[in-house]
Request: fold
Amino acid sequence: MQSSEADSFLRSVTLVTGAARGIGAATARLLAGPGQDLALNYRSDHAAAEALAEALRARGSRVLLLPADVADPQQVARMFERVDAEFGRLTGLVNNAGIVAPSTGVQGIDRPRLERLFAVNVFGTLYCIQQAARRMGTASGGAGGAIVNVSSRAAQLGSPGVYVDYAATKGAVDSLTVGLGRELIAQGIRVNGVRPGIIETDIHADSGTEAALPEAARAIPIGRLGRADEVAQAIVWLLSPAASYLVGTTLDVAGGR
Ligand code: NAP
Reply:
């Protein structure tokens, strides 16, 4: 095999949403290396995204930064067009971008909050899968690929009194994983997911639940919170050929919770 053929055989092009920090950034770090093109989406934290990109380039990856709101289908479409233009054929997508909302009981949930949670966590995931499937699906001339959706253990535990609406968005993500896993495998695309438990990232500041984390950690069978890199390991494995027979499956990465 010529070296250029070998390069293209080994090359992968992965788009990670919400990649400027937390689980998305940990996933990008784990993927980085020669032949691993990384398209990193985030919403607004340019400084964090630039710093991450510099570290990943130093490890041999080509990196494309894509500030965009995944809740906006036009921004999502433009983001994928930029990946086409810069990197060529997409091979993987990690739908990681997600938001929570301030902790509240049911009466504190209003329409703007609900709309934003569903727009980012559910609509954004679906918009990205649509764009990815057009590129990876054999029905449109693609060569297949892998998609990983980042859900939450909240989908099954419900988060009573904290954010049942967020939990419901992740329940919807789980349904997308099952349904689109079964639909898109016919086009060579494996769709799977992960359900993280409580992971040490900045997201908890947005819900105001940080103070409760030490007590929450004691209730987890493994006795501690999870780390972003521990979730990233599962995501990267699901993207890889090692997970070739997993379709529509969501793995709990939650320390036994
Ligand atoms: P995080 O530290 O808050 O990071 C979220 C990332 O998503 C940031 O890069 C943020 O960009 C980006 N983002 C937010 N809204 C976006 C939008 N509309 N469009 C594009 N990017 C957007 O979160 P995390 O804890 O790593 O969580 C990542 C995923 O794991 C989420 O889906 C979350 O629901 C899920 N999860 C987390 C936990 C946990 O305990 N941490 C548990 C279960 C599930 P900016 O920084 O630029 O705003």
